[in-house]
Structure formats: C-alpha cells, structure tokens
Amino acid sequence: MQKEVEAKIQTLGSRTNNAQLILNHLFQRPIIDAKKAKKLINLSLPSVYKLIDELESLEILTEITGAKRGKIYLFREYTKLFST
C-alpha cells in the first residue's frame, strides 16, 4: 500500500516532496489538520490547503468533520488495515 500511495503523490510534480513529508507523518498518525500540515511543510495556509485538496483528489486523505473550519483529515486506506 505504501508504494501505491507514493506512486500517486509522484503525480503532484513540484509538490511531491511536501506531500511525502505529510505522508510520512500520516503513517505515524493517520489524522491531520491544516495547522499540523503547515508545521510539517512550512508553507502558507493557502498552499497547505491546495496540497490537502490534491491529496483528497488522489483519495489519500478524507475530510471527516463536515465542518467549514477546523477540518480534520483521515488517511482512511491506512486505518482500514487495522479495522476488522
């Protein structure tokens, strides 16, 4: 699964390295928000949200709060490995 996800992020071009940093974090803690992602990749919030949107499009992240603000994202495919 890790190789599949890493192959998906290779399609992000110049944002691949930042996506990889987020992905590395997600394998440790599969829930993330934009503030945490900003700390990890040290970009502006608009850039972070754009990257998060792309990770959602690639079906790596899923927004789980349904909120307009303070959204939390889940690395769903990874967490499925641990459910019965």
Low-confidence stretches: none
Number of strands: 3
What is the helix/strand order?
Answer: HHEHHEEH
What is the rounded distance between the termini? 17 Å
Individual helix count: 5
- The CATH topology name reads Arc Repressor Mutant, subunit A
Features:
single chain; 84 residues; mainly alpha; Arc Repressor Mutant, subunit A; 3-stranded antiparallel β-sheet; 3 strands
Describe this structure in words.
This protein has 84 residues and is mainly α. The chain has a single domain (2-80), classed as Arc Repressor Mutant, subunit A (Orthogonal Bundle). 56% of the residues lie in helices and 10% in strands. The protein has five helices and three strands; from the N terminus they run H-H-E-H-H-E-E-H. The protein has helices at residues 2-9, 16-28, 34-41, 45-57, 76-80; strands at residues 31-33, 62-63, 72-74. Strands 1-3-2 form a three-stranded antiparallel β-sheet. Strand 2 (62-63) and strand 3 form a beta hairpin. It is globular, with a radius of gyration of 12 Å. The protein starts with a helix and ends with a helix. The model has no long low-confidence stretch (mean pLDDT 94).
Summarize the structure in short.
This protein has helices at residues 2-9, 16-28, 34-41, 45-57, 76-80, and strands at residues 31-33, 62-63, 72-74. It is mainly α and 84 residues long. The protein has one domain (2-80): Winged helix-like DNA-binding domain superfamily/Winged helix DNA-binding domain (Arc Repressor Mutant, subunit A, Orthogonal Bundle), CATH 1.10.10.10.
